[in-house]
Design goal:
Belongs to the ABC transporter superfamily. One of its GO terms (molecular function) is ATP binding. It comes from Paracoccus methylovorus. Keywords: ATP-binding, Cell membrane, Membrane, Nucleotide-binding, Transport. This is ABC transporter ATP-binding protein. The structure is a single chain. This protein has about 350 residues and is an alpha+beta fold. It folds into 2 domains: about 230 residues, Rossmann fold; about 110 residues, Beta Barrel (OB fold (Dihydrolipoamide Acetyltransferase, E2P)). Helix content is about 25%, strand content about 35%. It contains 8 helices and 21 strands. Strands 6-7-8-3-9-10 form a 6-stranded mixed beta sheet, with helices on both faces. Strands 12-11-13-20-21 form a 5-stranded antiparallel beta sheet. Helix 2 crosses helix 3 and helix 2 packs parallel to helix 4. The longest helix is centred in the middle third of the chain and has 18 residues. The radius of gyration is 24 Å and the shape is globular. The protein binds adenosine-5'-triphosphate. The site of adenosine-5'-triphosphate has 11 residues, from helix 1.
């Protein structure tokens, strides 16, 4: 296993890129710690697969280095990198049995028969296939075949990393949860470095210890699910994580107050140095509440019942704002909205600004 370092990395699919816009991956430095379980999350086209292919060696970056531990592997072919990969669609040998498919990577590396037998049986148990080990893969459902691909990706214990590229796309929805849980178990049992690419926030947040969020070819934040929720480093993280995402309001920040465009004042949880650029405050719908008095004027437009809470969509001085209210609390007729000051984040040109005393205890 190895720490994976991306040094001064950038990639353009064009031979002669002219501007930053020509780069699918903008210049970045990033470290994937040995044994970490990471999700690489972002919207379609943000560069996730490009980044994964650079790590696996399917693609040579146009700039920068890839290090496995201290070894520079930037130009090394995939076969030399000692990694396992699981793709979006199953890659199985139809004419082989499930057992032989799972054993393939181990036989290739000359492992002995008794080790192969016990390891294959262990993996088969984890993916729920021990009863069909001797069946040919041909004729199995896409779902079952993808489970074989997952199993084969995890069968080797000596890999530097396991890379998953949207591995659960073809899996039945109710199986997804189970397989993700099994992947997590495998991670805690064997400690492999795992990088799991997805555009689905639920998948990312339930799989990973650290979620790496990409936007337009950049890593905009790496953090725990809680950090992404509480302190999104970029407005994209605010929008993308959460359902619905964060509310943003244009503001002018003065010390521990934000002045909204309509002239209303919002109390902030910290004191801010003068902030330049396009300044906004970001408030999660979960950190806003409807009240009878105080706060700011709010007009309810629609109330949606979403299980354990209600989502109230409305307007604050002409701007759309979403509020999450607990089940059982009457909201109809509440004319104002209040925000929890310590939960408000401040952004300048989309990047989060920390209050002066943040981190000081
Ligand atoms: N082989 C290629 N040649 C030229 N451009 C490419 C190639 N592969 C990807 N791109 C472009 O690079 C950018 C990043 O694509 P990439 O596939 O890495 O994104 P992604 O986040 O994995 O998206 P998706 O989830 O849709 O697979 C996109 O603008 C895409 O059009």
């Amino acid at each position: 296993m190895a720490r994976i370092t991306l040094q001064n990395l950038a990639h353009s699919y064009l031979r002669h890129p002219r501007s930053e816009a020509d780069f699918a991956l903008k210049q970045m430095d990033h470290v994937w710690q040995d044994g970490g379980a990471y999700a690489l999350l972002g919207a379609s086209g943000c560069g996730k697969t490009t980044l994964l292919n650079i790590i696996s060696g399917l693609l040579i970056p146009s700039q920068g280095k890839v290090l496995f531990g201290d070894r520079d592997v930037t130009g090394a072919p995939t076969a030399e990198r000692n990694i396992a990969q699981v793709f979006q669609f199953p890659v199985v040998y139809d004419t082989m049995t499930v057992r032989d498919n799972l054993a393939f990577p181990l036989r290739n590396r000359g492992k002995d028969a008794s080790y192969i037998k016990s390891r294959v049986e262990q993996i088969a148990r984890m993916i729920g296939m021990e009863s069909i080990l001797n069946r040919k893969a041909q004729g199995l459902t896409a779902d079952a075949k993808q489970k074989i691909s997952l199993g084969r990706g995890m069968v080797r214990e000596d890999v530097n990393a396991i890379l998953f590229d949207e591995p659960l796309t073809v899996i039945d929805p109710h199986m997804k949860w189970e397989l993700r849980t099994q992947l997590r178990q495998l991670h805690s049992q064997f400690g492999h470095t795992m990088i799991y690419v997805t555009h689905d926030q639920t998948e990312a947040l339930t799989f990973a210890q650290q979620v790496v969020v990409m936007h337009e070819g950049r890593v905009v934040q790496m953090g725990t699910p809680e950090e992404l929720f509480e302190k999104p480093a970029h407005s994209f993280v605010g929008y993308f994580i959460g359902s619905p995402g964060m509310n943003f309001l244009d503001a002018e920040v003065r010390g521990d107050r934000a002045l909204l465009a309509g002239g209303e004042t919002v109390e902030l949880g910290g004191h801010y140095a003068p902030v330049a650029g396009r300044v906004q405050i970001g408030i999660r719908p979960e950190h806003a509440t409807l009240v009878a008095s105080g706060g700011l004027p709010f007009a309810i437009r629609r109330i949606e019942d979403v299980g354990r809470h209600r989502l109230v969509r409305g307007e604050l001085m002409g701007r759309a704002l979403n509020v999450v209210m607990p089940e059982g609390v009457p909201v109809e007729g509440l004319p104002r909205v209040a925000f929890a000051p310590h939960k408000i984040n401040v952004y300048a040109d989309d990047w989060r600004i920390a209050p002066e005393q943040e981190g000081a205890s």
